[in-house]
Amino acid sequence: MSGGSKQSVRMAMDVLELNFLTVQLADQSINDIKKRDCEEVCENLRIITLEQLSRHDRHDDCWIAVYDRVYDCTAFIGKHPGGQDVILEYAGRDATLAFVDSGHSVEANRILRDYLIGQLPPHERLWLPNRIKVNRN
Ligand code: HEM
């Protein structure tokens, strides 16, 4: 291998390592947010049933559930960078997999917190606590 090629390979490896570190850092902050959320959620939040959630399924009254927490995202729909329709599709129901699969950033997870209004009752929870947790972020 020529000197130039070796240098290119070295640079590519440096970039890979940097990407790996960045992903690790993002994982860390998301996990911090989730841990803190979980502790707060269990204590103080209003209980909202799936039936109550299902009644808020409109553009002007839009709640979704993510990881068993309920968010009133009515005020955010018009500002959503991914468009209104993707959120409306999940209005009144669980949006966890859609939210996680869209690869939302740490910032998106922070914004979501601003709209937190409640949590599902323990017997209606899919994810928290002691249940399977998808962690693709
Ligand atoms: C209140 C709930 C939501 C919040 C706060 C939110 C926030 C955001 C933010 C800040 C972005 C910009 C990129 C980023 O920072 O990750 C984004 C992009 C996106 N969101 Fe959401 N989102 C929400 C719900 C959803 C749901 C339920 C879906 C369902 C599929 C979705 C799908 C997407 C997609 C596809 C993009 C990418 C848009 C693009 O890059 O063109 N979002 N979201």
Word description of this protein:
The chain is α+β, with helices and mostly antiparallel strands and 137 residues long. It has a domain at 50-119: Roll (Flavocytochrome B2, Chain A, domain 1), CATH 3.10.120. The protein has helices spanning 3-44, 50-54, 74-77, 84-88, 96-101, 106-113; strands spanning 57-58, 61-66, 69-72, 116-119. It has a 4-stranded antiparallel beta sheet with strand order 1-2-3-4. Strand 2 (61-66) and strand 3 form a beta hairpin. Helix 1 runs parallel beside helix 6. It is globular, with a radius of gyration of 19 Å. Protoporphyrin IX containing FE (HEM) binds next to helix 4, helix 5 and helix 6.
Radius of gyration: 19 Å
Terminal CA distance reads: 38 Å
What is the residue-averaged pLDDT?
80
CATH topology of the domain at 50-119: Flavocytochrome B2, Chain A, domain 1
Sheet having the most strands? 4 strands, antiparallel
Q: List cofactors, ions and other ligands.
A: protoporphyrin IX containing FE
Overall 3D geometry? Answer: globular
CATH superfamily of the domain at 50-119, by name, is Cytochrome b5-like heme/steroid binding domain
Number of helices: 6
Strands of the largest sheet, in order across it? 1-2-3-4
Task: Kindly provide the name of the CATH class of the domain at 50-119.
Answer: Alpha Beta
**Which percent band covers the strand fraction?**
5-15%
Low-confidence stretches: 18-25
Count of extended strands: 4
Quickly give the structural class.
alpha+beta
Protein name: CYB5_0 protein
Organism: Fopius arisanus
Domain Cytochrome b5 heme-binding: 45-121
Keywords: Heme, Iron, Metal-binding
